[in-house]
Amino acid sequence: MSTGTGRRFPDGFLWGSATASYQIEGAAKEGGRGPSIWDTFSHTPGKTLNGDTGDVADDHYHRWQEDLGHIADLGLGAYRFSTAWPRVQPGGSGPVNREGLDFYSRLVDGLLERGVKPVLTLYHWDLPQDLEDAGGWANRDTAYRFAEYAEFMARELGDRVDTWTTLNEPWCSAYLGYASGAHAPGRADGAAALAAVHHLNLAHGLGVQAVRSVLPSAKASITLNLHVIRPVDPSSPDDLDAVRRVDALANRAFTGPLLSGAYPADLFDDTAHVTDWSFVRSGDEQIAHQPIDVLGVNYYSTALARRWDGASPRSEDDGHDDALGSPWVGADDVEFVRPEGPYTAMGWNIDPSGMTELLLRLRDEYPGQPMMITENGAAFADTVSPDGAVHDPLRIDYIARHLEAVGVAIDQGADVRGYFAWSLLDNFEWSYGYDRRFGLIRVDYDTLQRTWKDSAHWYQGVVAQNALPED
Ligand code: PNW
């Protein structure tokens, strides 16, 4: 177990923590908020563990001032949060709900008063239900509705916000939402998922244009959960080809248009039996390709893939679920295999080397692109000690080793400007409900009381020193 290597970070390195609206706010029916796809999904029996919903969550909507206090006490330089589109525009288009907007306006002011930079994400998965009823992300129109919402937010919160992030993890929105159905809206339609990929890329580009039309100097960003996928057998051409295919779906389907202005040709070829991609119109890739000031990188673990022989039972880590679909659209001949442990409570393997590998790949492929780690952290089965403390050495060890891995990449030329621990608070972990705890701060779901875990105290020290402690 490690608490740090003593490594120092560059001057001005931005230390933060992150949350997302549906995961912490609660107050699902208050303040004029409209329903989102996550309200519908979590209220559908069988979709989330224990039937958990975000109705109350951390009750952050009412306790935001207390939470700002924790942010300030941690000494964070920045706070990454998302605004709930259905709070601001309950129907996803048309009239704006002033009360919802005022909530975020007060939050931003509260951060600034405490010297904390607001890093705002416009979309962290809570799509207004009315837009889903019109086809959701499989419908091109949703991208234009998103741009209207983005422009509106930029007008209202203007230059009080440091960084404008369009989307969080469009991989999850598209493939977990529309192909595997593990996330809202819970559809299982590969062609719809690929259309969603494209409309999310388009929404990002239109969103950046919209924000900059109001705030020409706005810092624009998108957060991707890029996958580090390794071949089971690095000497097997079949396994290497399997990795190439899932790399196209998971990574290059986003980085291609967003950072290079074009989809990779192999993605079209590999999925030609699923869709003809006719939803990609001339000029769309140029729209998606807006210069961004910072690329948000979320990193948790690595994956191992190989060619599936079509006969043996698929491995448990495959993501193929008979009850659901697979997120790996058109890649039925690829199999994911469980990487070596140790694992977190999510069942995700712990491998800080993947963090360095990913950052160095991005350094090579997009030279000069500033980056930020917008999420990294771990769920463990925390317990409360009789004295009320939460001793979570595994989380400290996880974050310390991943920060070290970020530092190694920085030493090798990766331009990483900051790090946001996921998450500030235990919260609604999507389909896993409240069962999986990622917080630096524990939330008691009976009393909603917040308690700093050991990792919060440890992180406070890291932030203050701009360095890891020495074991
Ligand atoms: C990210 N997967 O979600 C999200 O941005 C957070 O809201 C979330 O709480 C955090 O990571 C921890 O899960 C993911 O299945 C959810 O590969 C699922 C996957 C990846 C990221």
Automatic annotation (TrEMBL):
It comes from the Bacteria. Gene3D superfamilies: Glycosidases (3.20.20.80). Keywords: Carbohydrate metabolism, Cellulose degradation, Glycosidase, Hydrolase, Polysaccharide degradation. The active site is at E169 (proton donor), E375 (nucleophile). GO terms for cellular component: cytosol. Its EC number is 3.2.1.21. Signal peptide: none annotated. GO terms for biological process: cellulose catabolic process. Substrate binds at Q23, H124, N168, Y300, W422, E429, W430. SUPFAM superfamilies: (Trans)glycosidases. GO terms for molecular function: beta-glucosidase activity. It catalyses: Hydrolysis of terminal, non-reducing beta-D-glucosyl residues with release of beta-D-glucose. Belongs to the glycosyl hydrolase 1 family. This is Beta-glucosidase. It comes from Jiangella mangrovi. The lineage of its organism: Bacteria, Bacillati, Actinomycetota, Actinomycetes, Jiangellales.
